[in-house]
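Example record

Each entry pairs one chain with its bound ligand, phenylalanine.
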Amino acid sequence: MVRETWATRVGFILAAVGSAVGLGNIWRFPFITGQEGGSAFLLVYLAFIALIGFPALLVEFVVGRRTELNPVGALQELGSGAWRYVGYLFVVTGFIILSYYSVVAGWFLRYTVIGVTDGYTASAASPDAAEALFGSVATGLDSLLFHALFMVLVVAIIAAGIRSGIEVAVKVMVPAIIVLLIGLAAYGFTLDASAEAYAYYLSPDFGVIAENWTSILPAAAGQAFFTLSLGMGVMITYASYLGEDRNLAEDAGIIVGLDTAIAVIVGFVVFPFLFAAGLTPGDGGAGEIFVSLTAAFAEIPAGRVIGTVFFAMVGIAALSSAISILEVLASYLMDEFGVDRVPAAAGLGVAVFVLGVPVTVDLVFLDLLDLFADSILLVLGALLLALFVGWVASDAAREELEIGIGDLGGLGEAWIWVVRIPVVVVVAVSLYLGVVEYAEFLTEDFADWLAAR
Ligand code: PHE
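Structure tokens for the complex follow.
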């Protein structure tokens, strides 16, 4: 079987941007920024993206392009001893993340439909109504059906392949996300509350940073990895379909730049909506954004249209991320077991769907999976890969990066050292804090939930 490749460079870049831009940019980023000190957090985050995220993205790219294999095969080919098994971690992580990501994405589809059928004015007229609406969307039969619908879309795109599936889909989806987002931000600007909202979002509070740096640093690091889809082999897999040798550093720069710009613009959308409805951003969380935004859409002029467009835009962004996760799993089955693309995509889709079912029954499973994947598995994956490429396979990595760029001289060496020390240290500290946080969750919230059974 000849391995497929991207038809165009733009196709590859858009696929990577599509993967990067997702729920992480849209509901996570603006709220973390709001909570962690506004533009002061933004500065730390931007520094992390450039200093840690960008080099780590290059790490995944060189591994993928060098081996032209899925993450399991790639690590088996490059590594020896225990390193040969690191790829399995990526596959497990992908399974877990996609299972709940699909449930949450299904909520966005459901909210889009609500906008079309009856608007948010009736269903979310009061905060209590908005809360009740979220309850009915998030769990139960509706949640299950929209989770299934979302997985069908993901499977359909992956089954169609790299060129006619992923590449075609992202060439429509990514421009659509950008256009819709800019339109929504422009609308947000016209709202009276926009000045107040921008001030909340952008006024730097360095006092907050000084006081809370122990929570800001890992939050910024975790967000940097999650938003760039690092730590589970997505970028390895996508780069493995690069047939020819391009300048990976340039591609990575474009991808990181677009992902960051989109995240920042989202803040210019979400905060004006909330302030216009007289709401102050609360402490985030899975339901919070749905409840407060639907309440906002019930208030603001043309809220029904704006809300429908907003939820649809998020649904599209989630879809372009979800396909990248299923492609990691599918490429593993195809490369390692010679399974054909269509049965691989369909079989995996069913398995992921089943794994996500508990989340549609009780939201405690969302926290259980999300915290585990997000603050432990992804970070562990990124750490192991940085250690491997920085300390074990650095010569091959540097050589691979230079293909398509030319002699990097000291820059190549600098990249390896950034990966060896700063990336490893930041990720290791985040991992430690992530484990502590997860242990707390298990012994407190989750234990309470179990005890109440
Ligand atoms: N980057 C995606 C987002 O911001 C999430 C993601 C993480 C996608 C890991 C794939 C792999 O929503």
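Residues 410-451 form the longest helix (42 residues).
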